[in-house]
Amino acid sequence: MKSAGSAIREGRDLEGLRDRYLAAKRAEGFAGGTLRYERLYLTHFLAWLRQQRVCDVRDVSPRHASAYALALARHRYKAGRGERSALRFLKPRTRATRLRVVQGFFRWLLRRGVVLVDPTAAMPVTFKDRQLPRHVLSEAQVVRLLDAPDLRTPIGLRDRAILSLLYSTGLRRSEVSALDVTDVDLTGLTVFVRRGKGGKPRLVPLGESAANDLVAYVTKGRPELSEGHRAPRTPALFLGVGGPGQVHQGHRLEPEGVSQMVSRGCGKARLPRLVRTHALRHAFATHMLRAGADVRHVQRLLGHSSVVTTEAYTHVAIKDLAEVHARSHPRGGGPRPKRPVRLDPRFPPK
Q1: Which residue of 15, 152, 160, 286 shows the fewest CB atoms closer than 10 Å?
Q2: What is the pLDDT of residues 101-147, one digit of tens each?
């Protein structure tokens, strides 16, 4: 049994409770990126509590929970680093994510007996409208992006291998960054994701084209990137490159480095809009569904815990079908095509 004094001190140690909660989640296998965002969101919530002159988690009431949800709806942030950067409101999805983090924190406090009632139990944290990808890369655009790196350089070989891997497997940027050399079976054409989202492992098949690009990188590009660097030997598959004295020189390529590489490729390929790393994951799923892949199979490949998440891509494919129906059907309502429209990417129109 806790003494009254120790219970009071524990309830007032807001940052200490936050750190213990995150440590417990780390022990359960949650990814480091997830925990970094949860720390950020909880720190913001605790700072807001202090502004409301609440210094003990046991004093938080449902009224405070509702007030914080309203504060997030009114919160605005700078979209850029410049002085003239526009102020934007948080998206509904972001607000729901922040509220779920706070709710998970209080559920943990309730299980540990720090609080007797969960003040966030009635807090609205659901977000029903799943956001669809605004723009899905066409196959021609993917080819232009894959052809952007200069294969005469080790960095170009690395970038081509990453782009091919992203499109062939649908991996997230954090999963690509975390890959070790031994995680890729170039003979059996599989990629082992040791720690996906939520710490869940999965085995993903690898296409032959991506495998060939990885062979070129591993045999020619990676040895040059690691040679002569002061970094110790690393099992990382993809290595970062920096200037003299850079801490990431020869070390594992970070997720942000993967994003920067995709942005550079987008500029070289002269794509009409900025392409983020997740766009290749969107293209992977949408193109497979267009070609007739089962949504359950795509769910397993993407590592989604629920098929509902994967079904967002089926809506994109259905929109394509609706446009084809409008153009092709005698009573579809759209202009008739001059040539047949082919949905199967294996048979692109000439």
Answers
A1: 152
A2: 999 999 999 999 999 999 998 887 765 555 555 678 888 889 999 99
Integer angstrom CA distances of residue 231 from 95, 105, 158, 235, 243: 40, 39, 18, 12, 13
Output phi, psi for 131, to 5 deg: -75, 125
What is the reported pLDDT for 202? 86
Are 4-112 and 139-328 equal in CATH topology?
Answer: no
Write out the two tokens for 157: 């070989």
pLDDT for 58: 93
CA distances from 217 to 145, 172, 213, 344 (A): 17, 20, 6, 31
For the question of residue 152 being annotated catalytic, the response is: no
The answer to whether residue 300 is catalytic is no
The pLDDT, as a whole number, for residue 343 is 43
Catalytic residue among 21, 41, 167, 313: 313
Return mean pLDDT, the chain: 80
Is 64 catalytic? The answer is no
* Catalytic (active site) residue 278: yes
Q: Which of 197, 251, 282, 290 is catalytic?
A: 197
pLDDT at 130: 53
Among candidate residues 64, 172, 251, 282, the one labeled active-site is 172
Instruction: Let me know if 172 is a catalytic residue.
Output: yes
- Catalytically annotated residue among 95, 222, 251, 281: 281
| Domain topology for 139-328 | hpI Integrase; Chain A (1.10.443)
Is domain 4-112 in CATH 3.30.110, yes or no?
A: no
